Amino acid sequence: MTYYTVFVTEADLVMSDGKSLEHVGVEPDVVVLPTPQDLTDRRDPALAKAAGLVGVRISPEDAGAAFPDKDFTHY
Question: Fewest Cβ atoms closer than 10 Å to its Cβ: which of 10, 11, 30, 36?
């Protein structure tokens, strides 16, 4: 079995200063790293923090339940 990844640019995001993000990327202002216990307990503190930044209150537990489990064992 072979796994591979392809990255395809669909658009060139140009910021208000006229500079493109292509080949530059972005650096996060806030770093949120889930702990192994967060992953075990299906908490998503990163999604909870991101939602909070735009005014939506959601707990890490609710954020972790926002996306159902994917079972990749059948591939």
Answer: 10
User: What is the H or E stretch that residue 64 is in?
Assistant: helix 60-64
Cα 48 to chain center, whole Å? 11
Q: Which of 39, 30, 75 is nearest to 60 (CA)?
A: 39
The CA-atom distances, in angstroms, between 24 and each of 7, 13, 21, 30 are 15, 11, 5, 18
- Residue 49 falls within a domain, yes or no? yes
Kindly give the confidence (pLDDT) of every residue in the chain, 75 residues in length, as a single tens digit, with 9 standing for 90 and above: 788 888 777 778 888 899 888 777 777 788 899 999 999 999 999 999 999 999 999 999 999 998 877 655 554
